[in-house]
Design the sequence.
């Protein structure tokens, strides 16, 4: 699962991977780098040149083949075997303090699943993906049948209703048509734009449905998009999008240890008290299994925008079609394993740059997550090789392979909860790569304070086309915005995506611990998400045949980590952050109808003050760096102070109704979509003005607090500035 998985539809991309020159071949050293003195920048450029020369497409492909050789769902013997493989490899590569950490979590594995149509005709769903020509892995007998993680167990025979995307407004339309879904089975589809299946499950549960069936319509990710596997990248007739329905938008991680780590022997709450465990049965379907159901449905004709890609007329149903659903799950406690290693910093070992990717996959995980895992294995090999040669980062780089991401962001959440105190003291940033590549279009996410650093870094890397990554990123972003009919011009200020939702392993770092995050991904036409066809064959024919984008991802990931690890002054840009916050507030104000009893001017005034303080600090830091020498004690004071800014956006009480999520600027809707100013925005949308005023004051206070912090840091820099500077 990727937090950039907002849609399964992307524009068809040029075949840029045909370029075969090494990606580092044309790279020129940068004469200035954010956060570095001129001398340090020269040294950093030399280090980056050495680093970028190490990863190779052949080795990326080799590692990708290892991780996609067998299905490896969370908690499975194969996934655990891969954890041991990674630990052994990291030790040989020179990583230090390599450890496998165990977390005992609420399990979710299928014992039995079945679906039958019992009226008006009989049809037994196959719930299986058939092999395709040329793909030997599609014949693997270890491929599971259809199942949904965290589904409830049960059995029901009931009428079937078609509810489009399964969002609240869809049920409103059904009610207007006189259709009540209570006690019935609901058939919905994976929608575009993306809506998390867990939100579909919660909505169906709240509506009183007995079970939920979620199918992949060819209009979203199949033949309506283009050629399907094995002739193209889109999903074939039998592809099944597996996935969990965990309510991790309420509390991610192990449902029975909310807010604390599920280490062996940890206190566990009763299942009945767990807010993230669904109480509804759910099952994913291919369109092959959904078509007989849809073809036999009666009732009103579905609205035009509810019609799909199948050559039939979609009806709402509710009477004629009856189905029998039976699901039996194994919910016994099972261990998940997080692999952790590090390259200890030469001068600042207690300041951490954390990088991570999840290891578990629904089947083979060709894109999600094994493309990211392959890139991470080349990242560790390259960092280890540099360390062995005597080139060690100034700060510690911590590398983690997460388990159970697909079940509810489990491994990263438990690790983050276990080490929350240490992370708040030591962590500079977290860089997440879930899916390294499904195509050539770069999508970079960052908290706004790190967005300029991400944009700058892309100037130093070459895309397989021969242009800089920056040039290609800017051009593809402009094209995508034109296609989406967005009028905003693409600038360096808005190039990076600073609207961060949930759905991947960055969540615990940003929303619970208060660590700045970056997320990296190359995207393309990708219609086999979470299916058995997302495998080695698909990647080698459609996603990244030459493994050049895997290699570029390793290079980008590593250069970002090295810049954060070696910077003299950490490259946070708080003036940019303030501009982003102002955008958030203005958008909220624009969306408030009428004349609500909420004055946002004090908050906007506080944003102005924070921006001014950020600009002053940026100018002082630039002068100090240009002087060529910064006192180490002063640098430590400034860096530790700027690390505190993100922590200060945390509200210990959390978002009203969702206390685990503590960040007052960044949050996620139940769909996983980004949600800015979450506590305030949700209160405004509910027209709960008392809560809205409280949330506005919490944000204003945090802005005032961070403004004072930046002013104090600026005073330190100004007092220490050399004469004449």
Sequence:
């Amino acid at each position: 699962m990727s937090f950039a998985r907002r849609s399964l539809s992307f524009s068809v991309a040029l075949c840029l991977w045909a370029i075969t020159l090494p990606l580092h071949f044309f790279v020129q050293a940068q004469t200035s780098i954010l956060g570095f003195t001129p001398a340090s920048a020269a040294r950093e450029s030399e280090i980056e040149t050495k680093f970028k020369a190490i990863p190779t497409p052949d080795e990326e492909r080799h590692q990708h083949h290892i991780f996609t050789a067998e299905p490896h769902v969370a908690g499975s013997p194969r996934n655990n075997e891969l954890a041991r493989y990674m630990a052994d490899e990291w030790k040989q590569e020179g990583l230090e303090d390599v450890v496998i950490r165990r977390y005992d979590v609420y399990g979710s594995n299928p014992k039995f699943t079945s679906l039958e149509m019992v009226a008006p005709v009989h049809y037994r769903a196959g719930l299986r993906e058939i092999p395709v020509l040329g793909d030997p892995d599609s014949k693997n007998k270890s491929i599971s049948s259809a199942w949904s993680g965290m589904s409830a167990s049960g059995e029901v025979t009931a009428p079937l209703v078609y509810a489009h995307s399964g969002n609240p407004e869809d049920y409103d339309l059904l009610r207007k048509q006189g259709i009540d879904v209570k006690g019935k089975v609901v058939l919905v589809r994976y929608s575009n734009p993306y809506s998390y299946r867990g939100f579909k499950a919660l909505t169906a549960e709240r509506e009183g449905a007995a079970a939920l069936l979620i199918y992949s319509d060819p209009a979203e990710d199949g033949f309506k998009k283009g050629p399907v596997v094995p002739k193209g990248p889109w999903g074939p007739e039998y592809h099944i999008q597996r996935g969990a329905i965990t309510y991790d938008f309420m509390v991610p991680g192990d449902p029975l240890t909310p807010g604390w780590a599920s280490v062996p022997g940890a206190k566990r709450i009763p299942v009945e008290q767990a807010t993230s465990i669904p109480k509804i049965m759910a099952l994913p379907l291919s369109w092959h299994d959904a078509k007989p159901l849809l073809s036999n449905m009666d009732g009103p004709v579905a609205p035009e925008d509810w019609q799909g890609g199948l050559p039939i007329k979609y009806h709402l149903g509710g009477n004629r079609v009856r189905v029998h659903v039976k699901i039996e799950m194994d919910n016994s406690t099972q261990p998940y394993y997080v692999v952790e290693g590090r390259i200890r910093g030469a001068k600042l070992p207690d300041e951490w740059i954390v990088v991570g990717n999840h290891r578990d996959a629904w089947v083979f995980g060709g894109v999600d997550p094994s493309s990211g895992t392959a890139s991470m294995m080349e990242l560790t090999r390259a960092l280890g090789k540099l360390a062995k040669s005597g080139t060690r980062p100034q700060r510690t780089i911590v590398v983690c392979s997460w388990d159970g991401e697909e079940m509810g962001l489990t491994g990263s959440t438990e690790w983050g909860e276990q080490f929350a105190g240490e992370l708040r003291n030591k962590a500079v940033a977290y860089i997440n790569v879930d899916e390294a590549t499904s195509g050539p279009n770069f999508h970079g996410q960052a908290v706004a304070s790190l967005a300029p650093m991400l944009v700058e870094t892309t100037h130093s890397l070459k895309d397989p086309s021969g242009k800089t990554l920056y040039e290609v990123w800017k051009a593809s972003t402009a094209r995508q915005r034109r296609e989406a009919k967005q009028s905003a011009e693409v600038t360096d200020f808005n190039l990076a995506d600073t609207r961060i939702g949930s759905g991947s392993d960055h969540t615990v770092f940003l929303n619970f611990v208060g660590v700045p995050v970056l997320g990296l991904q190359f995207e393309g036409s990708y219609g086999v998400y979470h299916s058995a066809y997302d495998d080695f064959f698909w990647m080698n024919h459609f996603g990244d045949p030459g493994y050049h984008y895997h290699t570029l991802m390793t290079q980008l990931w590593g250069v970002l980590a090295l810049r954060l690890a070696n910077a003299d002054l950490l490259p946070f840009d708080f003036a940019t952050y303030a501009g982003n916050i102002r955008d958030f507030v203005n958008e909220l104000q624009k969306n408030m109808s009428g004349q609500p009893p909420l004055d946002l001017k004090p908050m906007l005034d506080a944003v102005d003050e924070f921006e001014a303080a950020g600009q002053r600090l940026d100018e002082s830091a630039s002068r100090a760096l240009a002087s060529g020498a910064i006192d180490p004690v002063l640098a430590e004071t400034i860096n530790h102070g700027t690390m505190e800014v993100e922590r200060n956006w945390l509200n210990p009480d959390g978002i009203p109704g969702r206390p685990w999520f503590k960040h007052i600027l960044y949050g996620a809707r139940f769909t996983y979509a980004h949600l800015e100013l979450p506590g305030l925005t949700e209160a405004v949308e509910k027209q709960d003005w008392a809560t809205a005023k409280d949330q506005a004051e919490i944000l204003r206070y945090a802005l005032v607090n961070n403004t004072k912090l930046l002013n104090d840091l600026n005073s330190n820099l100004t007092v220490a500035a050399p004469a004449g500077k």
